[in-house]
Amino acid sequence: MIVIYGASKKPVYLWINDGEAEIRDASDLWGKNTFETTEIIQGEVGDKSVKVACIGPAGENLVRFACICNDLYRQAGRTGMGAVMGSKRLKAIAVRGTGEIKIAKPDELLELAKESLKKTLEMPATKMLREQGTLLQVMASNEWGVLPTRNFQDGVFEFAEKLSAQYAIEHLFIKARACFGCPVACGHVRYVRSGKYKGALNEGPEYELTAMLGSNCGIGSLECVTKAAQLCDELGLDGISTGNVIGFAMECYERGLLTKKDTDGLELKYGDMDVAMELIKNGHGEALVTAPVSKKAITLCGEKFSGHT
Asked: Which side of the chain, N or C, has fewer Cβ within a 10 Å radius?
């Protein structure tokens, strides 16, 4: 566990090398996205195997749902921990260690690991998740009527097939990838090969992010969601919360609780991919939390938004 007290007067990052800690200047990293930050730090310490947990512009701007990113596509999302790092002007924590973890009973642990691995590989769900990723849940949720749609106003989305695992396999799939030490490998690397979002690359998006940035915003394009997920990863935004807030803002606009005056002229209409992308990029996510939703709008949520608090 690392506990960091106080705040720096200038941007810094924490470098931990075999237990020795050093605070280094990160002024040149401030404003960089998470991918750039990781690459620059690894180059500075001269080791591509160094692990970097960092924030992007969203954390720097104290966006309330900024996350901490590591290994490029791994995020500590929700709860705004990226904003906490940003408030301390702590751009990153970089770690390299060559020691070993002491195990009390290594032989017994190895046997348990083998047993667990065997059971995991025998499970039908393992094969399904490896082949389809977590997007297999899209069509199931749609059939059950629980797929988040237009800020949860509905549970069935007419373009669900365009967000499905089958669509991803046929049009975007590159390879399966596992979290460290996991035998399932449900993470799918996807690439947009043509169209408006050609070149977008992301490990994912997985089910929750696809549902929130896709159907929850009325967007039936996995290509668009893949690009949006890439932007969230680069900026250090929690993609699930991002989609949740955009969907909420769109319903506020739909019901007249937000107007063009509140949104700098943007029409927050469900299904508008350009608007969703602009909300993510504008001010590195600042627009998502600084739009002046009035107290009246929040109060009316209980009346006008069924099931919302």
From this structure: N
Residue with tokens 């106080």: 6
Contacting residues for 131 by C-beta, under 8 A, at least 6 apart: 169, 176
Residue type, 71: D
- pLDDT score, position 296: 36
Residue 162 DSSP class: G
Sheet strands side by side (includes 201-203) = 173-177, 187-191, 201-203
CA 9 to chain centre: 29
Span 53-110, pLDDT tens digits: 999 999 999 999 999 999 888 899 888 999 999 999 999 999 999 988 899 999 999 9
CB 212 within 8 A of CB 40: no
Q: How far is CA 271 from CA 19, 120, 236, in A?
A: 50, 39, 24
Within 10 Å of residue 149's Cβ, how many Cβ atoms?
25
Query: Which of 130, 247, 243, 104 lies closest to 186 in space, CA to CA?
Result: 130
Whole-Å CA distances, 9 to 12, 24, 85, 180, 232: 9, 13, 13, 35, 27
The string of pLDDT tens digits covering residues 210-220 is: 999 999 999 99
- Contacts (Cβ under 8 Å, ≥6 apart) of 178: 184, 185, 186, 187
What pairs with residue 52 in β-bridges? 94
**Beta strand segments in 35-179, E:** 51-54, 68-70, 74-76, 90-96, 173-177
| CB 45 within 8 Å of CB 94 | yes
